[in-house]
Design goal:
heterodimer, A: 115 residues, mainly beta, four-stranded antiparallel beta sheet, 48% strand, B: 108 residues, six-stranded mixed beta sheet
């Protein structure tokens, strides 16, 4: 069975940092672009960014709202994708999903930015 | 920035046909994808590459495209189809993905 399991969510103060992990299983992770998508409570889906695989030089791209603050990385030896979030703002409070944007989505990790 | 526009809500009675549109603000249009999301759950892919249906998705779900607008059609709507639906596509470079604002489908 395919699984994407996020971890690392929690409560952080404005200006702080947090790193989410996403462990994948059941599919060829190294060949897959991995995306992060977030959803604030009661709101719609927002694309955060993505990282491509080795064949595409691990290229990254980010939404304007997070560019310069968030960094996506991956470790194919661990079938894991990461989302490093710095300079967090209250507006970053959301459930963060890792996903291939196709069939596979994680269950989501809640990030709350509050003092 | 590239934007996708969906109606906030659509309401239909059971057995009727629901159509949810998604309009892009510019050409060219990249492929569109449709997701269904029920409360407290992760999104589920319903249509990919404008018109393709993943295995396991009921045949009553179909996608179509015309110009810069894509449409998700649900024929013979069932109560279990009540959910939020999101379209997703990319800008002309194919780099930056974007979601529509979402449409809440209510089955009366």
């Amino acid at each position: 069975d395919v699984q994407l399991v996020e971890s690392g969510g929690g409560l952080v103060q404005p200006g702080g940092s947090l790193k989410l992990s996403c462990v994948a299983s059941g599919f060829t992770f190294s060949d897959s672009a991995m995306h992060w998508v977030r959803q604030a409570s009661g709101k719609g889906l927002e694309w955060v960014g993505r990282i491509r695989g080795k064949a595409n030089s691990y290229a990254t791209a980010y939404a304007a709202s997070v560019k310069g603050r968030f960094t996506i990385s991956r470790d194919d030896s661990k079938n894991t994708a990461y989302l490093q979030m710095n300079s967090l703002k209250t507006d970053d409070t959301a459930v963060y999903y890792c996903t291939t944007l196709l069939d596979y989505w994680g269950q989501g990790a809640l990030v709350t930015v509050s003092s | 920035s590239y934007e996708l526009t969906q109606p906030p809500s659509v309401s239909v009675s059971p057995g009727q046909t629901a159509r949810i549109t998604c309009s892009a603000d510019a050409l060219p249009k990249e492929y569109a994808y449709w997701y269904q999301q029920k409360p407290g759950q992760a999104p589920v892919l319903m249509i990919y590459k404008d018109i393709e249906r993943p295995s396991g998705i009921p045949e009553r779900f179909s996608g179509s495209t015309s110009g810069t607008t894509v449409t998700l059609t649900i024929s013979g709507v069932q109560a279990e189809d009540e959910a939020d639906y999101y379209c997703q596509s990319a800008d002309s470079s194919g780099t930056y993905r974007v979601f529509g604002g979402g449409t809440k489908l209510t089955v009366l």
